[in-house]
Amino acid sequence: MPSTNNPVTYFIADLHLAQNRPDITACFLRFLKHDAIQAQTLYILGDLFEAWVGDDDDSAYLATIAKALKTLSNLGTTIYYIHGNRDFLLGERFAKKSAMILLPEVDLIDLYGQSVVIMHGDTLCTRDVAYQQFRKKSRSWWWQTMVKSLPLFVRKKIAADYRKKSAAATSVKPQEIMDVTPAEVVNCLEAHQSQLLIHGHTHRPAVHELTANNKPAKRIVLGDWYEQGAWLKVTPTKMELLNYAFNQTDTPA
Q1: How far apart are the first and last CA of the chain?
Q2: Low-confidence ranges of the chain (pLDDT < 70)
Q3: Beta bridge partners of 10
Q4: What does the pLDDT read at residue 134?
Q5: CA-CA 20 to 30 A from 237: which of 103, 113, 167, 250?
Q6: Angle between helices 60-74 and 22-34 (to 10 degrees)
Q7: Domain locations in the chain as residue ranges
Q8: What is the four-CA torsion angle of 129, 131, 135, 137, rounded to 10 degrees?
Q9: How far apart are CA 93 and CA 72, in angstroms?
Q10: What does 20-31 look like in DSSP terms, one character per residue?
Q11: CATH code for residues 9-245
Q12: pLDDT for position 209
């Protein structure tokens, strides 16, 4: 059970869970059972899943993930969720099954007395014009209504095709285009009068020093889960980027 005498908060992002990556799934289930259980709060900052085609997907695989998250919640860890660019269609139905509380795409939280901006991070990558154009369209009510009206098998095929096209496009994009725009980071911090931003998306875990609001500030980038489990551990006195390697002998529960 989480200890009120030893408060701790965890942040994760970019797990990209998928049935064809049992190593990632096993690592995540192990993380929930042995690590996240120590936390009072767990923030999932987007891209928990490789793709999300709708809450009506009732596969056994997704049910396993939902059950594991709800078990963690029942044991006392509060779970918050911010949508990523891969799972922005995740809705209230799955959130309820998983006992996750959905947050807006940018949120300002009180983290042990410090005001912190949290987000997935894709909106900071403004130099990727093609992606930002797609993002704007895909978040519109008419686009989502149209997509959700399609049969589930059609949505799954569209998602698979999009992932292939996205991977091909990413392979030829300059690295600086896919990273955050520094000025956008400052704008975000100043808009929320904060000195700390935590996000994922870029898959480049690091702690960046910068200036915002005419004062020293930090941007903490979470790691992805393609090759290892990665999370940020925060206590009232310390912040640590942590990880552990996948255990190939693990099998999803």
Answers
A1: 21
A2: 1-6, 168-173, 248-253
A3: 42, 233
A4: 92
A5: 103
A6: 10
A7: 9-245
A8: 70
A9: 18
A10: T-HHHHHHHHHH
A11: 3.60.21.10
A12: 98
Q: For 188-244, how does the pLDDT look when each residue is reduced to its tens digit (9 = 90+)?
A: 999 999 999 999 999 999 999 999 999 999 999 999 999 999 999 999 999 999 998
Under the phi-then-psi rule, with left for phi > 0, alpha for psi from -120 to 50, and beta for the rest, what region is 149?
Answer: alpha
* Residue 203 confidence (pLDDT): 93
Please name the residue that has the structure tokens 């918050």: 80
pLDDT of residue 161: 85
- Alpha carbons 206 and 198: distance in angstroms, whole number: 10
Q: Cβ distance 242 to 232 under 8 Å?
A: yes
Cβ atoms of 18 and 238 within 8 Å: the answer is no
| DSSP single-letter state for residue 49 | B
Answer left, alpha or beta for residue 242, where phi above 0 means left and psi between -120 and 50 means alpha: beta
Tokens of 168: 């091909």
Alpha-carbon distance of 88 to 235, in angstroms, equals 29
Q: Which pair of structure tokens corresponds to residue 220?
A: 């903490």
**pTM more than 0.85:** yes
Give Dmax (Cα) for the chain: 52
